[in-house]
Design a protein that fits this description.
- The protein is α+β, with helices and mostly antiparallel strands and about 1000 residues long.
- It folds into three domains: about 5-170, no CATH class; about 205-300, Immunoglobulins (Immunoglobulin-like, Sandwich), CATH 2.60.40.10; about 315-995, TonB-dependent receptor, beta-barrel domain (Maltoporin, Chain A).
- The protein has ten helices and 49 strands.
- It has a 30-stranded mixed β-sheet that branches.
- Helix 1 packs antiparallel against helix 2 and helix 4 (about 110-125) packs across helix 6.
- The protein is globular, with a radius of gyration of 31 Å.
- The model is unreliable at about 185-210, about 300-305, about 980-995 and about 995-1000 (pLDDT under 50).
């Protein structure tokens, strides 16, 4: 077959497709009309008419067959061309698949349709469905049901997924599998597979000749330049090997370097790019001549250069997430970014877990968030990703950090300018889910001489919706047979507009002394409306009664905080003293309107409606002071000492009124006034030193004393408790060679109850569902041990074990006579967890990929509602991010996460996950950036679960507004040059992590 003959076949085939689609369109036009399809099959999105199929389908057919022809010519050096049987088979297979998917969708088999869509991910990994014949067949099979526009869009997305999964992920996976298999066959069979997997890279690294490259970067005046980006390229193929940043003394180091020729490229803001060539021979340490960088006059007028960072950086004591390195983070909130970060899971209520363990301590810029539960989740939902710089994830924080957080600490660092002169960044974003959302923020920094000023303002307006479905079985306590069935479905819409302002200054009194002050203000009005119907049935599903429930919550959450800080270097040896004073004031005005309308089985009104009005103001004051001292010792050792004191006052006054016979009557039985005070004193000591060139350690001990008083003024009930605890930490790190480092660490930590959880009053969600505080709650304590292996910043493997005593969890209590359910936090049990986590990062030219897997087993043993309960499950979580950067600066990205079925306390949660897409493009000579993102494109991030113990048998489902498309635009202006100074974070403690106040 000649090329001309194939061209004629292409034309015939295109004409046939054109004839078929236009015949179908004309038939539909004269028999009911040509249909239009909503985007994503959602009525709130625009319609696309099938008339477009008459233009798009022929054009796509002609273009794709042209791609097939070019590939045939390239693959066949000789003429004539061979008949493309494999291409025909691929096209027909995709055609059948598209027809099957369309048929099941048209017949209403939504589950099968969902399975077929999800199976495409697996097929994209196994087969090259990115090729033109597969796309053509799939679109042809889908068009006659969905129309050409939607079919082409879906097909294009699957092509992008297949390009990444089949071409790169599968290839890397096969290479890794071959390497593991070869090592397994060469080692003794008596070595366990787990230990071999942890150490196989050590054997490989030790067998190679590896060198170390050291050097310095200076300016024209021979002064060291800090934070310069130093990249190491292989000369033979221009492959980027590694990028590091210079320290404060201008030094940089590349470890684990093979023998070959390299090019070192130095880039930093305000200076011209500089390069130097080197030749590495043997495994010695190579000292590179100092790189001198020349000031770029043009750059000083307007700096637009930005250093590129890796998405994930693994350190010995923490993992760092560089937020701006991911294009899909555009339009995402801090909570959504956390959710797709390695090792972090977010449950149905927004609670955060780290490696399967609840009780995470959240810091913002080195200071606690002073929020917990739903209030912390709402704050993180309103904190936009455009405001974030880095996220630090620490599973075993050092002794200088508060001991609160049994599973670890997450420090969210916001963006800060680091240059002399001025800089400003404006960002605006729009996100479309079921409802629209928008955000704007302005970040300004000005530094001249000894004064640095900074300000940030942001506004984030969100409209969201969430659907709840709950099925409860009320069992007879003695016979354990079903007594009543309750089915509840409700939709909750939420509007809020979070406004945040931050003002601050740093004054450099001398080269050794800096004082600073920061003021933060936050105002967040909210309105949440929930409507739903509750059905009561007998065990045979015969309807007994129903209730229409509506609740409206209005709140205005305000907070004000101020910090004064001091940093003083005592001498040239590096002795340093720092101090922080903090005051935080939170106030929340919250009104609640609950209405219930009752009906009998026939649908007629049954009794008078039940209306309850609530006024729930809350006031919290926090005072905190902290002093830290650093004392360098001989041989690289360091001693750190510190003291901290914090005092908390909370006042929650819940006043309820009932509407009875059209009169508002005070409901004294439901009202409550609770005052709680807490004082925490802490001191710590930490010692670190290198024992040899390969072995180093850090050991710390923290002492914390807690004294608390609670007073329920309504009933005159009081309680007091106090405790003093020691929290040791230990780190040992062994550098086996330039590529392999082993670290083992241990820490003891605690989780204190949230302030509101200690308040015994009842919070009404609807007529049949309540939440109640528990003044008998006590802290939970945990022991954490980790063994970590790092291989050349490529693979990190972690083994972990945790035992937690008196774990705090929500349990359910039911009243079978009233069909009511209470949720309450109690110290239910002891928890034991062990797991393994592997993080792999690889960069090949413009491609980069990060793959994370964590497998862990959770087991709870304890007494719940007077019954001994043992609950256990093994869960696996997967996080993947693959990005490609084009030469013109455009970056594309696909990422996702998947979590198998597991436990969230006593609740068994089914598997869930999400796939996200993103792209970013620089504009106006890097002064601006536009980003587009699509989150949860398959709408799979739905929480389904159940809880069964004793007489409790409940299933639930939550469907959030998680499938969104977002567009973000950022514009930067600046003038000046890089400064080496760092802004000091203020004092912090766990108090802020435990505040509650908003209604959602």
């Amino acid at each position: 077959m000649t090329e001309t003959k194939f061209l004629s076949y292409r034309l015939y085939f295109t004409v046939a497709i054109t004839t078929a689609i236009w015949a179908l369109l004309l038939w539909n036009h004269f028999h009911g009309g040509v249909v239009s399809h909503h985007l994503l099959h959602r009525k709130d999105l625009p319609k696309i008419s099938d008339w477009w199929s008459g233009l798009l389908l022929p054009l796509l057919t002609f273009l794709l067959t042209y791609r097939i022809q070019k590939r045939l010519v390239k693959d066949n050096n000789t003429s004539p061309l061979k008949f493309p049987k494999n291409i025909l088979y691929g096209c027909c297979s995709a055609l059948v698949y598209g027809i099957a998917l369309s048929t099941f969708f048209a017949l209403g088999y939504s589950k099968i349709t969902g399975y077929l869509f999800n199976a495409i991910i697996l097929l994209a990994f196994l087969f090259p469905i990115y090729r033109a014949e597969y796309l053509l067949g799939f679109v042809l099979g889908m068009t006659f049901t969905f129309g050409a526009f939607i079919s082409i869009t879906a097909g294009t997305i699957f092509v992008m997924i297949s390009l990444i999964l089949n071409l790169y992920v599968r290839r890397w996976g096969l290479l890794l599998f071959k390497k593991i298999r070869s090592l397994l066959s060469s080692q003794s069979k008596t070595i366990s597979v787990l230990l071999l997997a942890l150490s196989l890279i050590s054997f490989e690294g030790a067998a190679q000749k590896l060198a170390v490259i050291k050097g310095t970067v200076k300016d024209e005046n021979q002064k060291p330049l800090a934070a310069a980006s130093i990249s190491l390229y292989q000369v033979k193929d221009s492959l980027l090997i590694k990028t590091v940043y210079t320290a404060n003394n201008g030094e940089y180091i590349f470890e684990g370097v093979n023998e070959t020729k390299y090019l070192i490229k130095a880039v930093t803001i305000g200076y011209k790019q500089s390069t130097i060539s080197i030749n590495v021979i043997g495994s010695n340490t190579l000292i590179v001549p100092a790189i001198t960088m020349v000031t770029d006059i043009k750059a000083l007028k307007e700096i637009t250069v930005q250093a590129q960072k890796l998405l994930f950086e693994q350190k010995a004591d923490k993992m760092i997430v560089n937020v701006n390195a991911s294009a899909s983070n555009a339009g995402a909130s801090a909570l959504e970014i956390l959710e797709k970060s390695p090792g972090i899971t977010v449950d149905k209520d927004g609670n955060i877990s780290l490696k399967g363990k609840a009780g995470v301590q959240i810091f913002i810029d080195g200071k606690p968030a002073y929020l917990s539960g739903q209030d912390l989740a709402n704050y993180l939902r309103n904190l936009q990703g455009t405001q974030l710089d880095q996220i630090e994830i620490m599973t075993n924080p050092l002794a200088k950090f508060d001991a609160t957080g049994t599973s670890g600490l997450i420090n969210i660092k916001t963006k800060k300018a680091m240059q002399l002169g001025y800089s400003a960044t404006f960002t605006a974003g729009y996100t479309q889910g079921i409802y629209a959302r928008n955000n704007q923020d302005l970040n300004f920094n000005y530094r001249k001489n000894k004064v640095n000023l900074f300000a940030t303002f942001s506004r984030n307006e969100r409209n969201t919706m969430r659907t709840f479905i709950i099925d409860r079985k009320f069992l007879n306590p003695s016979a354990k047979t079903i007594q009543t069935l309750l089915n509840q479905q409700s939709d909750k819409t939420n509007w809020n507009a979070a406004n945040a302002l931050k003002l601050g200054t740093d004054i450099f009194l001398s080269k050794n002394t800096t004082i600073g002050a920061v003021v933060n203000g936050f105002y967040n009005p909210e309105r949440a409306v929930s409507t739903g119907t509750i059905f009561l049935s007998n065990p045979t599903h015969v309807l007994l009664a129903s209730t229409d429930a509506k609740s409206t919550n209005k709140s205005a959450w305000k907070n004000f905080s101020t910090n004064i800080n001091l940093r003083h270097v005592l001498d040239s040896l590096g002795k340093e003293l720092s101090a922080d004073l903090d005051y935080l004031y939170y106030t929340g005005a919250n009104t609640q309107d609950l209405s219930n309308y009752f009906y009998n089985a026939a649908g007629a009104a049954n009794g008078k409606p039940d209306t309850l009005y609530g006024n729930l103001p809350q006031l919290i004051k926090i005072y905190s002071a902290k002093v830290d001292y650093l004392h360098p010792l001989k041989k690289g050792a360091k001693l750190e000492l510190g003291f901290k004191a914090a005092y908390v006052e909370t006042d929650a006054n819940a006043v309820y009124d009932s509407l009875i016979y059209k009169r508002i009557i005070p409901d004294v039985g439901r009202s409550n006034h609770f005052v709680y005070n807490e004082q925490i004193s802490a001191a710590y000591a930490s010692y670190s030193r290198p024992f040899s060139k390969k072995l180093s350690g850090q050991f710390g001990l923290r002492l914390e004393h807690t004294l608390a008083h609670g007073n329920q003024l309504t009933t005159s009930e009081k309680f007091t408790f106090s405790y003093t605890q020691l929290f040791p930490t230990a780190y040992l790190s062994y550098k086996a060679n330039e590529k392999n480092t082993w670290t083992i660490n241990y820490g003891r930590r605690l989780r204190r109850p949230d302030y509101e959880s200690l308040n015994p009053f009842v919070k009404f969600l609807d007529r049949y569902t309540f939440e109640q505080g528990n003044p008998n709650l006590r802290p939970q304590f945990s022991h954490n041990i980790e063994l970590l292996h790092m291989f050349s910043n490529l693979i990190t493997t972690t083994l972990n074990f945790t035992r937690t005593n008196n774990i705090i969890q929500v349990v359910l209590e039911q009243n079978e006579n009233t069909n009511q359910t209470f949720g309450k936090q109690v110290n239910i049990a002891n928890q034991q967890q062990y797991g393994i986590a592997v993080n792999l990062f690889k960069q090949i030219k413009n491609f980069s990929g990060n793959f994370y897997v964590n497998v862990y087993n959770n087991e709870f043993k304890g007494i719940i509602n007077n019954s001994f309960v043992t609950i256990g499950a093994t869960t696996a979580t997967f996080n993947t991010t693959v990005a490609y950067k084009f030469t013109n600066g455009i970056t594309t990205e696909i990422n996702g996460f998947y979590r198998t079925a597991g436990l969230e306390g006593i609740f068994r949660i089914r598997a869930l996950g999400a796939v996200n897409l993103g792209a970013s493009m620089p504009l106006f000579k890097n002064k601006a950036t536009i980003r587009i993102s699509a989150r949860d494109i398959f709408w799979t991030q739905k929480a389904l679960g159940k809880v069964q113990f004793g007489t409790i048998d409940t299933q639930f489902q939550q469907v959030p507004d998680s499938r969104t498309v977002g567009l973000t635009f950022s514009y930067r202006i600046s003038k000046g040059k890089l400064s080496n100074s760092k802004r000091k974070a203020g004092s912090a403690d766990d108090e802020q992590n435990r505040v509650k106040g908003s209604n959602n």
